Prior knowledge:
By secondary structure, the chain is an alpha+beta fold. It has helices spanning about 1-25, 75-90, 105-120; strands at about 30-35, 45-50, 65-70.
Amino acid sequence: MKKHNHDRTRASRRMVATLRVLQRELPALRTVKLRRRRLPDVEDAWATCELVTEEEEEDEPAYFLISLDSRLPEPAASWALLHELAHVLSWQTGGPRDETDHSPEWGLAMARLYALWELLP
């Protein structure tokens, strides 16, 4: 059991490091926070991205929250991170903000993120 928890912690650290590298190359206009937790079993969602507004969080400015299901193994979790970060990038460039949308802006953001991800060690 401890090994499993250790592996999950290491995976979470790797996710945060990956997010930082990707954001350094393709920065978002707002802060992006990453959370690993068990997501509700609704509509087969293994990952989500949402804009948390000032009204929802009184003490801090709006930010994007990417949530990855803690049951999602590697490399699926990395793919989910890229997918959700593409939503962040497409929404800030004027793309639709429908959370299920995979617009042309989303596709371009995903392609750019994937190209950077391929270069990561």
